[in-house]
Amino acid sequence: MRESDNLELKKTHYIGTLALSMKGQQVVVGGWVEDLRELGKLTFITLRDITGVAQIVVVGADNLKQVANLNRQSVVCISGIIQESKARDFAYEIKAEKIEILSRAVHPLPIDPIGRLESNIDNRLNARALDLRNQKTASIFKIRHHVLLSIRKTLSELGFLEVNTPKIIGSASEGGANLFSLKYFEKQAYLAQSPQLYKEQLTLGLEKIFEIASFYRAEKSHTVRHLTEFTSVDIEAAFLDYADVMEILEKLISSVFEHVEKNCIQEQKTLGIEIRKPKTPFERISYKQAIEELSKRDISLTFGDDLMDSHLRTLGEVHPGFYFLMDWPMKLKPFYIHEKEDNPDVSKSFDLQYGYLELSSGGQRLYDPAKIRSRLIEQGLNPSQFEDHLKTFDWGMPPHSGWGLGLDRLMSIITKIDNVREVVLYPRDPERLFP
Ligand code: AMO
Questions:
Q1: Ligand 1 pocket test: which of 358, 364, 411, 432 has the largest number of ligand atoms within 8 Å of its C-beta?
Q2: Spans in the chain with pLDDT lower than 70
Q3: Of 349, 350, 361, 289, which Cα lies nearest the Cα of 324?
């Protein structure tokens, strides 16, 4: 509910910048009423903005009348003087002189945004904007911001250019399965599953590129790690082999943890977690070693069998942290992955795992168009649908490698929160299309 459009008070300070050393100074703060205690001649308001909380003392008949019955989560601007506080939780408080009520919260609210009353994840997601007033939820997204900042910094310093590729596409990038189709005027279009083909093509003009964007998978997976719209961090680099891009991924993960450890101290406290830089180098185990390890645990697989969720869970018990699972059989890998020269059944590919969870996959790419054509046919795909892509391989395509990293899964590891829905603002899964 809107109170007034004539804003007289203009916020001069964020709460996080105030201190007792500013005693006597006049400030204007603006935020949300987290708590309000009416004690007769005095009302205490706990006011929160994005940077913190402050105690406001309201005295005087007019001011007291103004805040009487003010619902929690209403929006106010308050001009007042900083003074010492006797309260246990506050070193200073603001003695209100002028109060403007900008917007009244209408109760009952769908969830308790302070988190005193626990709400289940569905109710929280249904009221996501309000859920962000819960400091635990806000901390997740402050950390996410820092993760993105760190990724952009690391990749830029390594000479990668950030690009944006189309999300509305005319044919599949990763093969036909899991594609969302949509009507594009009179034509059929799809939502991109990954930037795979574009990022490979861009290496011939820009050499080293990265993209951070939403991609779409029409998978009816009901797990804590699958979304139909997820954020992917993708890189592709000319003249690098798969060992080189694995090193880049390791460096990037390590820098992200280091950055968040240092820059998100309050957020770690709020979430009750300690974020620590993982030990590098990450362990590197081959697919062949993995199936040997599994056979010691009475799981018998032959070369070429895919690793199912249960297998990855067993491997995750043996390798609980980050590790690369590499050199997968060619037959399990997409058409664009390069084979090993000394053993064409084995690919130059890898997944980055965290325990059972796959965080990233990548590899060295084929860059001989004839080989790509025959791989497409082998996999039951029609090369004629890839002609726009294949023709670029005749324009001076360099050897290249890259990977795609699931940002939402990385966030769930950093924050130690299992369900990726918690670390995405407005998650999309087979059931959830709103808000
Ligand atoms: P892949 O399909 O393995 O590889 O995807 C890369 C990473 O993206 C994340 N991811 C998902 N996260 C949440 N929900 C989903 N439905 C989902 N699907 C994938 C995972 C996964 O490891 N083009 C290749 C990458 C490359 O080779 O460069 C690709 O898309 O963390």
A1: 358
A2: 1-7
A3: 350
